[in-house]
Amino acid sequence: MELDDTDRAILAALQEDARTPFSEIARRIDMSSATVHDRVNRMEDAGVIEGYHAKVDPKALDYGISAVVGLQVEQGQEQDTLGRLEDIPGVQQIHLTTGSWDVLVRVYAEDADRLRELMFENVAQMEGFARSQTMVVLGTPYEAEELPIAPDEE
């Protein structure tokens, strides 16, 4: 789907605050609410807008530790491994990568004991698992919530 400057302005407004009423977005970009609504629906249908989410502090849910785990998997086992990783409670992100690790996984656990359990009893026991390296996250001083939206260059 081709995005024009109006679509990009709508996306920027929704990324800033997904709860912004269409009437407010319409006022900002000088369009009708119905037009904004139609464009948002079109972008949702095309998969440009993938969803709307509440950002929750992991500590509020008693997740006291986070880690990034590099995984090497046996050749030919990548897809099966991805499916198994998705089923492990605490796995929040799975990235296929180049370099030393085939997969990088972001996990959350209540504490170091639960992280060790997640790694030894779940990840390390998976068929196709070769080796891993767990890097505990000490802090996240910056995490972008919005993708940069450049104007249409046509």
The largest sheet has its strands arranged as 2-3-1-4
Distance between the termini: 15 Å
- According to CATH, what is the topology of the largest domain? Alpha-Beta Plaits
What is the CA-atom radius of gyration, in angstroms? 20 Å
CATH superfamily of the largest domain: Lrp/AsnC effector binding domain/regulation of amino acid metabolism (RAM) domain
User: Which term fits the overall shape?
Assistant: elongated
Largest sheet data: 4 strands, antiparallel
Structural summary, described in words:
With 154 residues, the protein is α+β, with helices and mostly antiparallel strands. The protein has helices at 5-16, 22-29, 33-45, 78-86, 112-123, and strands at 65-73, 91-96, 103-109, 129-136. The chain has 2 domains: 5-45, Winged helix-like DNA-binding domain superfamily/Winged helix DNA-binding domain (Arc Repressor Mutant, subunit A), CATH 1.10.10; 58-136, Lrp/AsnC effector binding domain/regulation of amino acid metabolism (RAM) domain (Alpha-Beta Plaits, 2-Layer Sandwich). It contains 5 helices and 4 strands, in the order αααβαββαβ. The protein has a 4-stranded antiparallel sheet with strand order 2-3-1-4. A hairpin with a 6-residue loop joins strand 2 (91-96) and strand 3 (103-109). The protein is elongated. It starts with a helix and ends in an 18-residue tail after the last strand.
SSE layout and pairings?
Elements: H1 5-16, H2 22-29, H3 33-45, E1 65-73, H4 78-86, E2 91-96, E3 103-109, H5 112-123, E4 129-136
Helix pairs in contact: 2-3
